[in-house]
Amino acid sequence: MSAIVVPTIIVAAIGMILGVILTIVSKIMYVPVNEKVALVQEAMPGANCGACGFPGCDGYATSLGEGETDDITRCPVGGPDLQAKLSEILGLAGGVADPETAMVMCKGHYGVTNQIMQDSRIHTCAEAKMFYGGQWACKYGCLGMGDCVDSCQFNAIGIVNGVAWVDRENCVGCKACATACPQNIIDMVPKNKLVFVTCKSTDKGAVARKACQAACIGCMKCQKVCKFDAITVENFLAHIDPEKCKNCGLCAKECPTDAIINLRKKAPAKPKMTPEQIEAAKKAAAEKKAAAEAKKAAEAGEAPKAEAPAAETPAKEEAPAEAKAE
């Protein structure tokens, strides 16, 4: 019996002693935890993209929770939903920041510019930039090697026909692609702005046009046609002021090189009909009209016949009633 009881007592005593020691140590080494920081960390999206200017989501959460900053609009990934949560947690009334998206300011695809060299040893835009400024005729344009694609965590950018292209629906405005681009041709723009100068060349018009057919040539036609003074041309390159731009698209229509794009959604144009299709449509319309008139005439002819039995029915029913009364 003692062989069981004694070891049990010893183990229990050791456990109690260790428990007391752990309790004392936990009190001595206790580190205060800011509950707000923990709540903010839970609310963060966890993208760790660095667009907020802090070292990841935890860094931003710590700064907010400890009161080092009160700007709750710095996370483009979380957007308005995150801002509402942070406002509730921290009791801050921060304004809602306008959502931004990345925009590639280049249209130098294979059809409008030339590739002046190829080197199988070059695999990134950064390498191409260091190697004589890239392999394209335009030294300002997209290098097309996909550094921006590799940096994006949201599948919002890809290389199409040699040029980077941004999916505005997937883009969260984290700026990772803009940071990765060695050409600095990816700008962050308000999502509600739809008209842009997709060129970064500051060469003279003839030189720019020779390098790329879609280059801005500094002709100033866009500046003259703009009714809102939203466009200025400096160093042979047009610039649009997003504060003044109304997305009217007049500058895009006037641009002779299509360097200015207008992303406004337009209703598709109605396809033109051939003469045979026009005749068939006229015939179908005439048949439909004739059928409608025939149906109307038939309904008008049946109306009196339907009313006659209705008038005779009461007379037939009254006769037996009078006979019974007599």
Concise summary:
This protein has 326 residues and is mainly alpha-helical. 44% of the residues lie in helices and 10% in strands. Strand 6 (231-234) and strand 7 (237-240) form a beta hairpin.
Explain what you see:
By secondary structure, this protein is mainly alpha-helical. Among the domains are: 35-97, Electron transport complex subunit B, putative Fe-S cluster (3-methyladenine DNA Glycosylase II, Chain A, domain 3), CATH 1.10.15; 100-262, Alpha-Beta Plaits (2-Layer Sandwich), CATH 3.30.70.20. It is built from eleven helices and eight strands. The chain has helices at 2-28, 35-43, 56-65, 79-90, 125-130, 147-151, 176-180, 205-211, 221-225, 250-254, 275-325, and strands at 100-104, 157-160, 163-166, 186-190, 195-197, 231-234, 237-240, 260-262. The strands form four sheets. Strands 1-4 form a two-stranded antiparallel ribbon. A two-stranded antiparallel sheet has the order 2-3. Strand 2 (157-160) and strand 3 form a beta hairpin. The longest helix is centred in the last third of the chain and has 51 residues, at 275-325. The N and C termini lie far apart (122 Å). The model is unreliable at 267-271 and 305-326 (pLDDT under 50).
N-end to C-end Cα span: 122 Å
Question: From the coordinates shown, what is the CATH architecture of the domain at 100-262?
Answer: 2-Layer Sandwich
| SS-based class | mainly alpha
For the biggest β-sheet, the strand order reads 1-4
Oligomer: single chain
- Top CATH class of the domain at 100-262: Alpha Beta
* Discrete helix count: 11
The share of residues in helices is: 40-55%
Report low-confidence residues grouped into runs of 5 or more: 267-271, 305-326
The best one-word shape is: extended
Write down the secondary-structure element order: HHHHEHHEEHEEHHEEHEH
Strand content: 5-15%
Number of strands: 8
Average pLDDT value?
A: 84
* CATH fold topology of the domain at 100-262: Alpha-Beta Plaits
Rg, Å, rounded: 38 Å
Largest beta-sheet details: 2 strands, antiparallel
